Each structure stands twice: as C-alpha cells, then as structure tokens.
Amino acid sequence: MTEVDARDEKYKNGEHKQRIKWVNVISIGLFHLPALYALFILHRLNWKTFVWSLLVILTAGFGITGGVHRLWTHRSYKAKWPLRVILALCFSVAGQNTIFDWVRDHRVHHKFSETDADPHNSKRGFFFAHVGWLMQTKHPDVLKYGKMIDMRDVVEDPVVAFHQKFFIPLKIMLCFVLPVLVPPLMWGETWQYSILAAGFLRYMVGLNSTWAVNSAAHIWGNKPYNRGISPAENVSVAIMSMGEGWHNYHHVFPWDYKAAELGNYTFNFTTALIDLFSIVGWAYDLRVPTADMVRRTVESKGDGSHPHWESRQDDAVKSE
Question: Where are the transmembrane segments (predicted)?
C-alpha cells in the first residue's frame, strides 16, 4: 500500500483529519488587514498609482486566465514561445503557485468537480471553496487522483521548465517588488501608499478575484447549458476575473478558448487579448464548439434561462 493509499484508508476510517496550515491561515489573514486599510486611503493616492495598480491586476489576471487556465490547463489554443513567455511572466505577477501545481490542481478540479477529489469542492461551503482549501492539508482523494493526471504536455514545455526553475525570484520580483517600486520612483508616490495600494490591496484583489471563480461561480447563478452541475453563470465574477465567470458554459465546454459562448465578449477581456495575439500569429488553433453543438446542449440540458430558449418559447407562443 502506498503512502497516499494508507492516508486515504485512514481518512475513510475516521483516523485521518485534514490538518490546518497555520502558516497559511496567519499569512493570508495578515495580508488582508493592510489591504482592507488601503481601501480607506484610496482617495489620497496619486491617480497614476491607482491606474498602475489596476494595470498590474489586469497583467496578473491575463497570466492566470489566458495562461495557466485556458492555455496550459485546457489547451484550448496554442501559443508560440513569445506569447508563452509573456503569459509565464504575467502569471508570476499574480503571485500564486507554480504553473505545474496550478494546472494539476485545476485539471483535477474539472475531472472530479464537487467531489472529495476536487481541491476546492464547493459542496463544503463558500469559505472552503474560496480560501479555506488553502488553509488546510489536501483531502487524500485530491492527492491520490492528482497523481493520475497526465502532465506530460506541461512538463515538456521549455517555458514552463524555465519558470519552474526560477519560480521564487520571479514571484518575489514581479509580484512583490516591482509593483511597489514603480509609483515612488516614477511619479513620487509615498512609499507607504505604494506598499498599501500597489502592494497589499492589489495582491488581495487579484487573489480574491481568482478565488471567486472557485466559490461564487460554483454556488450562485443560472445554468443555461447544464442544470445538473454546480458551476453557474455569474456576471459579477466575470467582471472580477476578466471573463471566467461564465462558469456553467466553461464546465460544459472547457476546451473553448473563450470560456464563454461563441461571439460573446461581454466582460471577457481575456478573449479579446487572445484574439489580438491571434492576429499577429502568436496564438493559433483557437478551439470552439459549433453553434449547433451549443444549441443542442442548451435545449437538452439547460435550465431554460438561455436567450435561445426564451426566443424559442416566444416563437412557440406566436405560432399558437
């Protein structure tokens, strides 16, 4: 019996408990305190600092949505090495885990969504799905099935290998140092305000925007594509996450590079950026389902909230 199997057996027998990671609990809590305080001094910021912080959030967001999510996890499109380098650097700005860890956990999440093998199983409540899963050791099923995920495509990417090798210095410099240095050095912002706004607040907004996809978008919203799953269409999350809130659609068609319905740019800045890079040829082989495939899915599995369904109902009434 392997170590993971033994741990799994202990859990089933009630002998194994997910231990609290106090380092994560304390660090996440402490990072939020100055971020909350920063909300009260926003009106004192130089407008350039506010714009800079927003640009850093968008840069980090693109590294997550366009990079580790749509490219490396779902392979919904292909990217030439210059774009992959840009995405890896943007992801470093986000200050999250390595590309390998992020992709593995997200592939497990899709394959075993809303089960004990899901790292942020929303059936365990909003707080667990949002951030609680980072505050304790992983459920044995997450560890067990995570080892079964095929990660060869990620491991064989030289850009990912480079990012893995220099992960710590890239994360420190691009997530924590550079965003804080720019405002004081470029336009004379105070160090205190730069640390609070461009440092803590910007970082916490980015993290919570990502976490909201795991929590809010798995709990609240309509389900026009599949009424039988937890992920839902959540406009608020879509706004926060640059287009990742159209989550009912995404879990039905995870390989669609737009992560939203065909032709839909609504609150989906990531799709616009990928399309922009496709014009210069750095993004290619963009995968999408056919309109007929989407229509048939809506009609057979949706909850009736899709505009197509409503138009069909209107047509039926008119024909009577």
Answer: 21-43, 49-69, 81-100, 166-188
Residue pair 242/58 in contact by the 8 Å Cβ criterion: yes
d(CA 288, CA 311): 23
Helix (H/G/I), strand (E/B), else coil: 77: coil
**Pair 72, 276: CB distance under 8 Å:** no
**How many CA atoms, within 13 angstroms, populate the side-chain half-sphere of residue 102?**
26
pLDDT tens-digit series, residues 169-218: 999 999 999 999 999 999 999 999 999 999 999 999 999 999 999 999 99
Whole-angstrom distance, CA of residue 202 vs CA of residue 32: 11
Q: What angle do CA 30, 64, 67 make, to 5 degrees?
A: 155
- Alpha helical stretches, state H, the chain: 3-12, 22-38, 47-62, 81-94, 99-111, 126-130, 140-146, 152-155, 158-165, 167-171, 178-187, 191-193, 202-214, 235-240, 247-252, 269-279, 291-301, 307-319
Residue 52: how many other CB atoms lie within 10 Å: 22
Cα–Cα distances in Å, from 175 out to 63, 101, 110, 206? 12, 18, 27, 11
pLDDT in tens, 161-172: 999 999 999 999
| Sign of CA pseudo-dihedral 179, 182, 184, 189 | negative
pTM: 0.90
C-alpha to C-alpha distance for 162 and 170, rounded to whole angstroms? 10
DSSP string, 260-292: SSTT--TT-HHHHHHHHHHHTTSEE------HH
Give the residue from 137, 130, 114, 138 showing the smallest Cα distance to 22.
Answer: 137
Provide the phi-psi class of 267: left if phi over 0, else alpha when psi is between -120 and 50, else beta: left
From CA 67, how far away is CA 69, in angstroms rounded? Answer: 5
**How far is Cα 41 from Cα 115, in angstroms, rounded to an integer?**
42
Pull the structure tokens for residue 296. Answer: 């048939």
Give helix 47-62 / helix 178-187 axis angle, nearest 10°. 150
